[in-house]
Amino acid sequence: MADLLGERRTWTAGFWAVDKICLWYLSGTTILLAAYWSQIPEAPWLLAVHILCAILIVLASRKKASPHEGVAVWYFRNWYPLPLVSFSYKEMAILIPAVWGRSFDGLLADLDFAIWHANPTVWLERILTPWLTLPLQIIYTLFVPAVLFVPWLLWRKRCYPEFRYCAFLIALGYLVSYVGYLILPARGPRFLLDPLQHRPIGGGWLVEALRSTLDGLESAHYDCFPSGHTELTIIAWWISRWISPRLGYAYLVYTLCIIFATVYLRYHYTVDLFAAVGVAAVLLAKAPAMYRRLSGGEASIGT
User: Fold this and answer.
1) What is the percent of the chain where pLDDT is above 90?
2) Residue 4 covered by a domain
3) Can you give the residue range of the structural domain that contains 76?
4) In a domain? residue 26
5) What is the pTM of this model?
6) pLDDT grade for 64, boundaries at 50, 70 and 90
């Protein structure tokens, strides 16, 4: 595993890189809340959550914490991005209808058709079989645990500097994808192209249960462009190589499977995947320098 060149092994008070991007994101979404206040019934409590999150981040940044001193603050500072990005994801389902009041599914479907001269989800009915649908649905459903397993391994190995950079990169990946949802909201081909499909996705009761569970967790979301599943699994694969080559190969296979699953299962247009690959490539290339600047000179893992 590559080392953090120059990373401090003591954790002093002050803002970490992940704190800064989270505060920037909270500031941006707070401005949106203010701009569309009258159209968002949930605006007061969303604003309250924003303020609470910002206060907790600022207060925690003023405390010196380590694995042996200030343990509660230590755990909060390292792990708070997880509930924050989860809250921010749910918040997008509220903000996007107020900002746009429409989706851009038609545009994305047209781009797909222009590229392939067919609707990919409809074309893939040729290979639609239960023995393929079930494992792909399980792989797709395990997206969040698969992404979080990598930082958890770093944490378990007490590779705290590496964990901090990993948390920064994953949080950045999620938040950038939310900005994409806001710029070009879309719900996916399973809604727009359903009248064109000749066969249901099928796969049996377990597939239906998993799809229903995901629908309940995601609410009425506009989370297609870019594909967060594609972007974040690429990032998780890239980081997993630092832990072991074997894990890196396993994540490479998982990443390829989930990319295929996003279209096969009718969750995404292929242009969502192209955008996600581009976003992931840019983040992986630029994040090391960005992390270094935001951390006040600490070097990052970028290889």
Assistant:
1) 84
2) no
3) 11-101
4) yes
5) 0.92
6) confident
